[in-house]
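Dear Dr. V.,

Thank you for agreeing to look over these. As mentioned in my earlier message, I'm a first-year student in the group and I'm still getting used to reading structure tokens, so any feedback on how I've presented them would be very welcome. I ran two proteins. I've put each sequence directly above its structure. The first is here:
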Amino acid sequence: MKLNKFVKLLPVAAAIALMSAGANVNAQEVVKIGHVGPLTGAIAHLGKDNENGARLAVEEINAAGLMIDGKKVTLELVTEDDAGDPKTGTAVAQKLVDAKVVGVVGHLNSGVSIPASKIYNDAGIVEISPSSTNPQYTLQGFKSTYRVVATDAQQGPALATYSTKTLKAKNIAIIDDATAYGKGLADEFEKKAKADGATIVAREATNDKATDFKAILTKVKGKKPDVIMYGGMDATGGPLTKQASELGIQAKVVQGDGACTDKVIELAGDAVKNIVCSEAGMALANMPKGADFAKRYEARFKAPIQVYAPFTYDAVYVIVDAMKRAKSTKADAILAAMPATNYDGLIGNIAFDSKGDMKQGVITLYQFGNKKKEVLDVMKM
């Protein structure tokens, strides 16, 4: 009787064994890639735009199927909010390290990327910033810091050259938001503007939470500048431009990529016509596959691209390209493969110099005719 029971159980046991073996055959390795940027606060729209670019890349890679060294791999995007704050940024950087991500796309702000970069470097994890432009980010001697945009050492001079050569500015006022990004961009602009023979008639500082710029602008108005340069984000650059117009200042306000967004149109109002701004990369309209990307992005997220979603999208693909070349999903192997990157992405060819900067930097200048962002010039640096 006991033997019969044992015999009856044999097919069940065999089936369980086969199911288990099948599960092992089809088992997928889950590999985590981190994204971090400001998802709350005044520039949350920029952080969400960056996150969306990274998410679209992860979803497309998973849908296509990813094989690394003969094993099926599924990517998981682990996203964190740094609120655009350096202290929060280092805390969430450690959180991503603890989550065992193999690479990080972020941070958005230079002032957050710079302190957070030490944490990733100590952990041996590659960090690719899609939008941090302060030169100091890649000048720390870390082997883990990369970016897919040009730097302020290129962006600042491009804005200065446009101001002095095209706008014929002789007297320039400079205002920055006292962040690593805003001040860094303003410093680079100032050096080039002076070299071009311009006189800096005022150098003022505000902060990235300010809303009222009338006192600074009244002081600047008295100096009668031909051009005002502002180093900061759209959340402050838009209102500053609007308030300058309200005070009767008709000078062009030149600004960097942090303020070169569709959002600045809303924040500056009619005064947006006075803005000339730059992006530290190729314009979406000039990317061969830009229009197709925009369609896919808008279909997925029901919103237009702000600025750097194409750059976060490519940053994910660059990490995956390093995985493929390393034939490994290990963070240290991915990091070791990064210097040899030569990837043709949405934003163009991506290859890095010894610091982790792009070998070919492009600066695009824009104006806002009829409250619409339009390409003004493209400068290869």
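The second protein is here, in the same arrangement:
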Amino acid sequence: MKVLVIGSGGREHAIVRQFKNSPSVTEVFVAPGNDGMKQDATCVAIDSLEFEMLTAFVHENAIDLTFVGPEQPLAEGIVDYFESQGLRIFGPTKAAAQIEGSKSFAKELMKKYKIPTAAYETFTDVNEAKDYIRKMGTPIVVKADGLAAGKGVVVAMTLEEAIFTVEDMIGNQKFGESSSRVVIEAFLDGEEFSYMSFVHNGQIYPMVISQDHKRAYDGDRGPNTGGMGAYSPVPHLPESVIQQAYDSIVVPTVEAMAAEGTPFSGILYAGVILTAEGPKVIEFNARFGDPETQVVLPRMTSDFGEFMTALLDEKPFELNWSNDEILGVVIAANGYPVKVEKGAILPDLSKLNGDLQVFHAGTKEVDGQFVVNGGRVILVTAKATSLKQARQQVYAALSDLEWDGLFYRCDIGWRALK
């Protein structure tokens, strides 16, 4: 079985490695990939939005399955294009990818089908949005309606911050067309977790849950990022909560998408918060989360390639997960997530060995050394019999190296280990 993975970040590196470690997979390609993935796959210099070139490559190389990592090609219809060429690809169609691509689409779907989420209103006018904020008070959540690379959500704790945010998003078009419309919703208080599922034609295979850290700095301070670290499992959340989220969120959402004529196939990511009233949806994504993928996929003990074939062929499959506990820490470039400073040289990553794994995101190889080429540079994970042990292993290894021009949080996992 030959597989092509679309994308170039840490999430795609985890997907690539999972396929590489699958006995049923003979060859893994990644487009465009990054220099740090070269040990695990053959990198192909085709951008993820070059659909015509990608399908030509798949035909020429007899690729059996294409797996899409990032949201942008999904939102622009890569699955529709591949399927029109008779090619096997895993991910949602352009219509189904709206569950991530349009916050208002997702909120309206949840409202119609009574899927628990925060109360909200949608705005395109700055003054109307500001009036609503003044009426509702803070804290309040402001979200760009469209895709914003994980940076389009602001939890405003003050009136000034909320008003500045809508002026910036709608008035200044901070995220272009993506923020010409905003969703403003009630702030939900509680424990957050990421619940991802493989979905195809009504089949649902839920994954083990994880929890990530969005703020840039220790103590959950600083700006929101795409994620500074994650861990799985989430031991302080009982199994009954996970089951409740599956029953009240995951299953009804899959059924709702089918009922709306936009059936979902792919990775359904539910960002969930456990409130006093039970689990509620914060957001949906139409693909794997990053950095959650790097701590969830390595816990899969089943053959990934074999599972994907069975899923797409609609054959029953027993998907198995290890009891290992994994914790991962993102190493980011100075200035992230505001103004990234590129070019810093990374230390010798070969020293991160044993039960540690390194997933590359924003790296580039120059004269035999990896240098910073993006905001989130690498993610380092450890696998152990407890999160406490995994955390000790990661931080002990990181502290032995010099990270000039980079930074990382020193408290990943604090909620589970406090």
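From my reading of the second output: The radius of gyration is 21 Å. The chain has a mean pLDDT of 96. Does that match how you would interpret it?

Kind regards,
E.
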